[in-house]
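Quick note —
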Amino acid sequence: QVEPDSLMWSRTSVDGLGITSGARMTASAVPGGYAAIVSDGTVTRLARTASLVAPAWQVKDITAPQPVMRDLTALGTSLYCLGCSDTDAAGALLVSADQGETWSDTGQTWSTILGAYDDTLLLGVAPAAAVTAM
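Predicted structure written out below.
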């Protein structure tokens, strides 16, 4: 059984990412392929590949604006994710206009990124609150 909002990747699809025990990963389909951000708490890497069938990961160390980056989502030519600490339920909405190499804080805080629909980023607030769009 699979959680409906998660991507299932075979072990061979992620072997080239350097994932160690306890590392965190967030991934998304992006224009031209797939992107993943992997962090072990010390090093954060951006990985891109055109295919998950025969992945040829291009891996680059990046400077993470937050200790934890999650909910990676592509919208148009930009990437969005939430940045937070290990203990935060909500995170700062981060945006990258260069496919994940550099990130900037939008100044907004959200609980989750639900995804992208049409030209809209769907964001969720605290569990009892309504869902909103940006």
